[in-house]
Specification:
Length: about 190
């Protein structure tokens, strides 16, 4: 009987903590979503602060597009921005990864138009640099590109990284503006 009581005592606290965590999971998720800084091993992510810095450095062309995206949907058609926002409601991290894939697709499209060697080229960063050095995309895009890439890497590679839907939506606006800067050249009439 004494062994049974000791077993119950040993299990009581962990079970209570797990049960309380389950009961208050939505509140815990909101609390974790408010974290601006997270340290994991040697990497430290300050997503919110870095996001504000990226927003400040955004080229003027990418800033003016968010309002038009809100009005862009037609009956029965969901814009890419709306799709990303829907993903952000469920998983902000997944929305950021999807938005970055859109940036990469835009860079590849612009590189193909500039007749850069894209086949076998997996480094979108060097393609973006080449487009800028050729004068196809404005120079002020590169620091912005690098900031958004770092933010995407934080979201992708830090396992305990948590951000909220609002931060994800801001990243979506910025990354779609960046992608549209490359798309503008990719579909433009001038060579």
């Amino acid at each position: 009987m004494e062994t049974f009581v000791k077993l119950i005592e040993a299990i009581a606290w962990p079970t209570t903590v797990i049960w309380l965590g389950y009961l208050f999971r939505s509140e815990l998720r909101q609390l974790l979503g408010r974290l601006e800084s997270l340290k994991y091993k040697d990497a430290e992510a300050k997503f919110n602060q870095q996001l504000r810095e990226a927003e400040k450095s955004a080229p003027p062309a990418s800033r003016k597009l968010a309002v038009s995206w809100e009005k862009a949907s037609a009956r029965g058609v969901v814009t890419q921005y709306e799709q990303f926002r829907r993903i952000a409601e469920v998983s902000p991290r997944a929305a950021i990864l999807e938005a970055w894939l859109d940036v990469e697709a835009a860079v590849y499209a612009a590189a193909e138009r500039a007749k850069l060697e894209v086949r076998g080229q997996t480094n979108v960063h060097s393609l973006a640099r080449n487009l800028i050095s050729l004068g196809k995309v404005p120079e002020d895009v590169m620091p912005f590109f690098e900031q958004l890439r770092r933010l995407r890497n934080n979201a992708a590679h830090l396992p305990d990284f948590v951000l909220d839907e609002g931060e994800a939506n801001k990243y979506l606006e910025l990354s779609l503006g960046l992608a549209n800067t490359f798309r503008e050249y990719a579909v433009g009439n001038d060579a």
